TrEMBL record:
InterPro entries, sorted: Mos1_HTH, Transposase-MT_Hybrid
Residue ranges occupied by any Mos1 transposase HTH domain in the UniProt entry: 7-53
Entries under Pfam families matching the protein: HTH_48
Organism, as annotated: Araneus ventricosus
Protein name: Mos1 transposase HTH domain-containing protein
Length: 98
C-alpha cells in the first residue's frame, strides 16, 4: 500500500469531496495507514484547504524549500538554517572584522 504523503492527500481529497468530516477521515486513515498516517492536524489542515477550493494535492514550492530543505530567505538569499560549527565561526569572524 502506498503510504506516501501525496497518496494520503489524494485519499483526504476524495473523502472530503464525498462529504466526510475531518475527524471521520482521520479515524478511517488511522485504521488503514497506522503509524504512517499523517498527523491529525495535517489532515484537518488539508481538509480546510480542500473546502476553500484547492484541487491540487501536491506541495507548493515554498513549502518544499522551507520545510523539507530547511532553508529560509534572509536578505533576498536562500540561507540554510542549520550551519555546521566551522561555518558559524567563519561568519562570526567576518562580522567582527567589519
Amino acid at each position: 500500500m502506498d503510504s506516501s504523503r501525496s497518496a494520503q492527500r489524494a485519499v483526504i481529497h476524495f473523502l472530503r469531496t464525498k462529504g466526510e468530516h475531518a475527524s471521520q477521515i482521520f479515524r478511517r486513515m488511522k485504521e488503514v495507514y497506522g503509524e504512517q498516517c499523517l498527523a491529525r492536524c495535517t489532515i484537518f489542515r488539508w481538509c480546510q484547504r480542500y473546502e476553500v477550493g484547492r484541487v491540487n494535492i501536491k506541495d507548493n514550492v515554498t513549502n518544499i524549500i522551507h520545510k523539507k530543505l530547511g532553508y529560509g530567505k534572509v536578505c533576498a538569499q536562500w540561507v540554510s538554517r542549520h550551519l555546521p560549527g566551522n561555518q558559524k565561526t567563519a561568519r562570526m569572524r567576518v562580522c567582527l572584522t567589519q
